[in-house]
Specification:
Layout (H helix, E strand, L loop, with lengths): L1 H30 L7 H19 L2 H25 L4 H23 L16 H4 L5 H5 L4 H19 L1 H11 L1 H6 L4 H27 L11 H11 L4 H25 L1
Helix pairs in contact: 1-7, 1-10, 1-11, 1-12, 2-3, 2-4, 2-10, 2-11, 3-4, 3-10, 7-8, 8-10, 11-12
């Protein structure tokens, strides 16, 4: 019974980690005043970038970081349209959700002999207990990926940043009262650009967590709506880091429960 509970807990955290990272990206962008519904596209391009770099370099952590960079580059396009060109943020986000998967499949065909999915990454992101040398069989069976720790740290860091730093106050001011922030000398456009780029980076890390921790390669359906689930968690959490993280845990638990029940009845 203890083993089953630990396994369920670890699976919940494993499936929640990508959602948490992407949700934190959604929170920081929306608190700055830029709606970002393009999390799905940024997660997808991040998943592809992470797997590609991880495969060719043999270093999963480098791939994980570059997945974030890939998401950030796509977020830059959203920032240009939404901030500089004053375009509709919702339409731009929808376009990002088409561009991300399309670009990932196009690049996959170029780099992997015409295939729409990448080759399998041999070196995945390590498990925490295994990397620490834990030998207890129960704990080893319920081990969690290191990306879970990264996701939890991102929640604490963003919560502290938004509510306990001067820069975080400026971010919230740009989202809630941009005219007032501008009158006291805050560069609203710059703050929003930085937050959108951070949103893309975190969303890219969320996609990377799927392909380097949960599975070992990129496929066109690897994300399959996870970005929209992360967006729902942001709304569920009232655009607050901790609330959004709790929403992600709820969705992660539901996904883990489905897999465990299916395994029980097969």
């Amino acid at each position: 019974m203890i083993r089953i509970l630990l396994l369920g807990f670890s699976m919940t955290l494993m499936y929640s980690a990508p959602l948490v990272l992407s949700a934190m990206g959604g929170v920081v962008s929306m608190r700055s005043g830029v709606d970002n519904i393009g999390l799905e596209g940024m997660m997808t391009i991040g998943a592809f970038g992470a797997t590609t770099v991880g495969y060719f370099s043999g270093n999963p952590w480098l791939g994980f970081f570059m997945g974030g960079v890939a998401g950030m580059l796509l977020a830059l396009l959203h920032g240009i349209v939404s901030i500089s060109l004053k375009g509709n943020q919702i339409i731009s986000g929808i376009a990002i959700n088409f561009i991300g998967p399309g670009a990932a499949i196009f690049l996959s065909r170029l780099l992997f002999d015409g295939a729409t999915q990448t080759y399998t990454v041999s070196n995945k992101i390590p498990k925490l207990f295994a990397s620490l040398g834990v030998t207890n069989p129960i704990l080893r069976n319920a081990d969690i990926d290191a990306t879970v720790l990264v996701a939890l740290l991102s929640v604490v860091a963003l919560w502290y940043f938004l509510y306990y730093t001067k820069a975080g106050l400026r971010v919230r001011a740009c989202g809630e009262h941009p005219a007032a922030a501008d009158t006291v000398g805050v560069n609203v456009s710059l703050v929003r650009y930085l937050c959108v780029l951070a949103s893309g980076f975190l969303s890219g890390l969320g996609g990377a967590a799927y392909t380097l921790a949960i599975i070992s390669n990129f496929t066109p359906t690897v994300i399959s709506g996870q970005g929209f689930i992360a967006l729902a968690a942001v709304i569920f959490g009232n655009w607050r880091p901790i609330g959004a993280a709790l929403g992600c845990l709820l969705f992660g638990f539901a996904q883990a429960l489905i897999i465990m029940l299916a395994g029980s009845f097969i």
